[in-house]
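Blackboard transcription, Thursday session:
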Amino acid sequence: MLKKQPLLSILLYLLLGIGSVAMLFPFVWMVSTSFKSDIQLYAWPPVWLPLPLQVDNYVKAFTKLPFGLWFGNTALVTILSVCGTLLSCTVAAYGFARYRAPGRTALFMIMISTMMIPWTVVMIPKFFLFTQIGWVNSFLPLTVPTFLGNAFYVFLLRQFFLTVPPDTEEAAKIDGAGVFSILWHVVLPVTVPVLITVAIFQFDAAWNDFLQPLIYLNKQELFTIALGMNFFNGQFEVQWNYLMAVACVAMLPTVILFFIGQKYFVQGIALTGMKG
Amino acid sequence: MRKPKSLLRRKEAWIFYMLISPWLIHLIALDAGPMLASLYFSFTEWNMLTPPEWIGLSNYIFALSKDPLFWKSLSITFGFAVLSVPLNLVVGLALALLLNVSLPGTRLFRTIYYLPSQINGVAVMVMWIFVFNPELGLLNSLLGLFGIQGPGWIFDPDWALPSLIFMSLWSVGGGTMIWLAGLKGIPDSLYESAMLDGAGSWKRFVYITLPLLTPTIFFNLITGVIGALQKFGEAYVMTKGGPLNSTRFFNFHLYDYAFSKFEMGYASALAWLLFIIILVLTLIVFSTSGRWVYYGGEKK
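(Written on the board underneath:)
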């Protein structure tokens, strides 16, 4: 239809092009600023390609504050929480998808409704609980709960398991294979795309999490990168080129994962029935 | 009657509960328990150091009648939701319609629009603080090239909330992907027969696309409203609720009471008030959905 109307398709490209430039501008500005010298930062008209590139900014930013340590902390918390999520959620989702039991439907409905609970409602009692058991100022409140499942991911994985025909699993069961052996050898190999989706979602959630570290981590040596950037930003005289350098590095893992996982996310959207 | 079968059933049930047991712990210790505790705390005065003291409905009464910032923060939050949610719905759908056209390059455009919605957290907020910077920022630098003196954006009480609404548009691509999935679900045959009947593109949009997209509108509306009413990070990291409380979102107000003033009882009451508001709104949308959401092939 559009092929007969070249004018319309030019207009379409123009609209999409302008929008794309607008979308990418903040990124370009951030990256450009991260390579600027102090003088270029204040130059008028604004410098877009700062030459020579001040690669040094990255080194200086990381030595000015212990960003290396904070990146390490964030990586540790993120990796643990991705492992915890994958383990606990696949197991629970498999139970919901394949095993009949009294109360299953009710529990499933309860699980769906827990997604509605605002974080502020449970925030204070959870903080109190973790204070009581001495977990504040440790990574435990950020990691241990991920080993106890997550309603959204369990739902997502269950929806996927339901689309897998159970024939092979039944056959393995007759051969005497146990639940975990079937799950590991038969089910998970065909579940890889959804597992990647869940892993990336959780990676992003943990990597970018701000609220929980804010509540549970008060010691600077335990800071995550999110807290570190907030701390840097709160200082009296913000050095924007350094802060943008840190922001670039902080965004990099999620950008890379976006390009790896893009096609899987779209499958996930279809799977959860978000399209109705 | 048949014993082996009931034995099998029991084994199956046992395995089910074994598999979901980690999540059951989560449900009890981190969802249901804290929820009940929070409800109890909302009727108490409590600083977390001394035992909570029962004060009945006082926290709720204080919120509704005495706290000068309660209604302000609530209206700021609703103002944000009322403007940002429809804006994101309309722009998201318009974008999806443009991206749904099969022309070379639309895949690249999809990636570009989708990317910002998947990048978030403090790094993005810090990036935007600098975009909004009145002297050195991207926006005022661009405006300056045209000789326009830009506003103070998030540093100006009149502009701060609109700035955050503007910023929310940057991640419109997430909703767009869901719109696109919805558009894919509409059979081409409907459009073809409408074209045979002589329906123009606007008529096809109004009578075919929109009705069949109502489940997607429903989903994006609900998730959009729930998300908008719970905004926090932007206010905490970017504006500290200011300037002059102009971005004091409800949850920022709540957090301030909980972790700056350590009035945990009052903060719990605030949390429940917002929860009730969200529940009521969701119920309203759900109960009206029968009238305007069309599920293809559904038997009523």
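Lecturer's comment: Chain A touches chain B through 91 residues (CB under 8 Å).
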